[in-house]
UniProtKB/TrEMBL annotation:
The lineage of its organism: Bacteria, Bacillati, Bacillota, Bacilli, Bacillales. It holds the Pfam family SAF. This is SAF domain-containing protein. It comes from the Bacteria. Keywords: Membrane, Transmembrane, Transmembrane helix. The chain crosses the membrane at residues 9-30.
């Protein structure tokens, strides 16, 4: 009886000793790991899905610590770096915020204006269009001055008064509005004040304004449009 109790006590003592040793080893491992990583710094990450072309709200910004040796100049360390900025691409939750995907909230100046193209009058052919992309605008409208049917290969008959033509070429996208399913519902384009009149006329009276993604490179600063 006493022998059994003594054995149980011995096993318990050994178990406690092993547990303490494991804790000490784990603590030493953590300390060594932290020491090998060196000094830690705080960077900002997305605390939710951030849409492209819109200001980044404070409630979608969180912080995370990383080893200083992994710090890059493009990583965001202060919220002040996000003021007046928008993301050029969608940023998923948990993604580290960097200056490479940000730009000023507007590329407008005294010379340029933003005109918002809205569905259903505006039709966006490419769902991948994003801020700073270049696009062409093709407008279709009715006119008594439409060419004769035989002069229009796309005409549906003598009574067809519709005209389709290039309104603007290689204009810069400033903002993109998306639905929850990432369908584009509106788009802000950069035009001069004079060019804005033609775009607004189209929004009011055209049958359709089709937005085509251009093969031109993304804009890096304010841009206008070439009118046809």
């Amino acid at each position: 009886m006493f022998e059994t109790k003594r054995r149980a006590l011995l096993f318990m003592t050994i178990s406690i000793g092993m547990a303490v040793a494991a804790i000490l080893l784990f603590s030493t491992y953590i300390s060594n790991t932290q020491a090998s990583l060196g000094e830690m710094v705080t960077v900002h990450v997305a605390d939710g899905n951030i849409e492209a072309g819109k200001p980044i709200p404070d409630n979608l910004i969180a912080t995370k610590e990383i080893p200083k040796k992994f710090m890059l100049p493009s990583l965001i360390q202060s919220k002040d770096e996000l003021k007046g900025k928008i993301s050029m691409v969608p940023i998923p939750k948990g993604e580290v915020l960097t200056t490479t995907v940000l730009r000023d909230d507007t590329i407008l100046s005294d010379k340029y204006r933003q005109v918002i193209l809205r569905a259903p009058i505006a039709v966006f052919d490419d769902a991948t269009i994003s801020a700073l992309d270049k696009v062409d605008l093709i407008v279709t409208y009715e006119s008594e001055d439409a060419p004769k049917a035989e002069e229009q290969p796309h005409s549906s008959g003598p009574s067809d008064k519709r005209i389709t033509k290039v309104l603007f070429k290689d204009i810069t996208v400033n903002t993109v509005g998306l639905k929850n399913n990432n369908e584009i519902v509106n788009m802000g384009v950069v035009l001069t004040l004079e060019q804005s009149k033609s775009a607004i006329w189209g929004l009011n009276y055209a049958k359709e304004i089709r937005v085509l993604k251009s093969g031109s490179q993304k804009a890096t600063k304010e841009g206008g449009a070439e009118k046809k």
